[in-house]
Description:
Layout: H1 2-8, H2 12-39, H3 48-67, H4 80-103, H5 111-140, E1 144-149, H6 153-164, E2 168-174, E3 184-185, E4 188-191, H7 196-203, E5 207-210, H8 217-227, E6 233-236, H9 240-244, E7 254-255, H10 258-262, H11 271-276, E8 282-286, H12 291-302, E9 307-312, H13 315-331, E10 337-342, H14 348-357, E11 362-365, H15 372-377, H16 379-399, E12 404-408, H17 419-437, E13 442-447, E14 450-452, H18 458-467, E15 472-474, E16 480-481, E17 483-485, H19 486-499, E18 504-508, E19 514-515, H20 516-526, E20 531-532, E21 541-545, E22 564-566, E23 572-575, H21 582-597, H22 601-610, H23 624-631, H24 636-645
Parallel strand pairs: 1-2, 1-5, 2-4, 5-6, 8-9, 8-11, 9-10, 11-12, 12-13, 13-18, 14-17, 15-21, 20-21
Antiparallel strand pairs: 3-4, 6-7, 16-19, 18-23, 22-23
Helix pairs in contact: 2-3, 2-5, 3-4, 4-5, 12-19, 14-16, 16-17, 21-22
Amino acid sequence: MSLIKSVLSLPRPYKRAISLLIDSVFLFCAFWLAFFMRLESFSPLFNPDYWLIFAGVLPLSLLAFVKLGLYRAVLRYMNVQVVSAIIAGSFISAVFFVLFSFLFTAWTPRTVPFIFMCLCLIFVGGSRLFVRMLIGHQRWHKKSSVLIYGAGSSGRQLATALTQGPEYHAVAFIDDDKTLHGHNIQGLRVYCADEIPELIATNNVEKILLAMPSASRSRRKDVLSKIDSLGVQVLTIPGMADIVQGKTKLEEFKDVGVEDLLGRDAVAPKPELMNADIAGKVVMVTGAGGSIGSELCRQIIQLKPTKLVLFDLSEFALYTIDKELNEFKQAHDLTVDIFPLMGSVQRVNRIETVMKSFAVQTVYHTAAYKHVPLVEHNVVEGVRNNIFGTYRAARAAINAKVETFVLISTDKAVRPTNIMGTTKRMAELILQALAKTQDSTRFCMVRFGNVLGSSGSVVPLFRKQIRAGGPVTLTHPDITRYFMTIPEAAQLVIQAGAMGKGGDVFVLDMGDSVKIIDLASKIIHLSGYSIKDAQNPEGDIEIKCTGLRPGEKLYEELLIGDNVTGTNHERIMSAQEVMLDWHELEPLLDKLDNACHEFDHELIREILLKAPTGFNPTDGICDLVWQQNEQKPLRTADIIELKVANSPVNL
């Protein structure tokens, strides 16, 4: 084995020279052995004519092998092309044998060239297969044993890739197709899912590789439900679209996506709805660097607007999405103009000037503070950004003659128990009221739940905690949430916006709500760990409940009432909900604005409680500054200074 290692470590020209020398020996043995097998005598060795024949056959045979590319092939990656070169070279060698026999008028039995060709195949081809087997056996002992779930084309390609890679050794295929059970594919036996526990035990399997990139999410969910408690890590190969586009490789495994655990298949978007407010228009996205905003931008640029205005307060977030979109634009030869603009939606002059300067036609308003505990701790900023930021952006849109204004809302706006949800419900009321005062700008709102992979999402947190050895933390064992992928949410937002007539509240079909503790358990199991609890004290990862955070609900809702109708899209519903006229809402906003100026948290809460938002707080005032001042009363000088600093003149 050490000799093989030494040879394999030599420079390529040396290895080719050694291969030529060894093949010369094989040809020599095959030539004379062919005569012996036919004549059962070594007498041809003493006939000079046969030596002349061999002298002609040897160099021409080696030349044929060289021309056929046999010595350019890497031995450990020997494939069909190499075998074809060996067969063709052996045949050509036999033809030269016959030609030189006639040339030198040497009597040669007709079967000898045929025997010679067969021996060439055995010696030249067999030696390479033998060495390849030795190398593979040596590498196999260093690899982790895995099962491949899926014996289709992707699974077969994966098995081939694994034989060449340094990490994994496939021991079997698993497939639900009963016609394949018991058969061998590429040297691997195909088993049913029920036999996985036995295979894991007998082969010391560490991972299961899910080779089903084209399967629907519901199908993948069914498969994962069979294997999520087996105590081995489950990895999946990338989607075929990413592989074909060169974004990733087949053998670049990743953790099973939570979208597969949910089993929710996306509905193909309707082109007429996707294009209605975007194609050939000037589009602006506020909060363009956020989770939803950035995905909206990715979807929008593919629909070919004339201009795309990116508006965000965060310099880094704006830089990141601008860079990504410009790279996409160059790669796909698009003509859309991209304008990255910094600014706050609370600055009405800035946002209105931007809309007028670029003649914006469609606005997607995603800029908002959305993290419930943070908004609870920063009440005034949450109110200013989510309520007055939306109001000023909407006013700017009306003044700039924007055609369509779409607000991204949240399920937390339904019967809110926290400031964040209440501010988003107030933002909905503002747009509904403004929609009735004019008809130049079409306002609508799209309400949905959590999106997978957004900033602060629970799933990346769970994975990080699992990698650290636990514990996995959640706030309550009974807490549930709705989930949707970011791309699907963005597509549905665009399509819902195109259906709005003015003041519409659209609700996205989020499927069934998910119990977070069940989600955490599945992620732990699919990561190859067991849950540590009272029933299993020797487990790997513990799940701890830390208690509900300020303003947090056990479950979320999408509808305030039951008055909901369908739309042209199966995943989009239209809700008819309570609203205020502008003359009723405006005094509330004025009072709320003054309360924010004065940092009067008691009055802010009173106004929000009286507004028709359904606000039902579960906690007292949680603003950190207010709590600090409650603990340590302000001096008279401090109060005067605060009032001067926050007077309308200085805002």
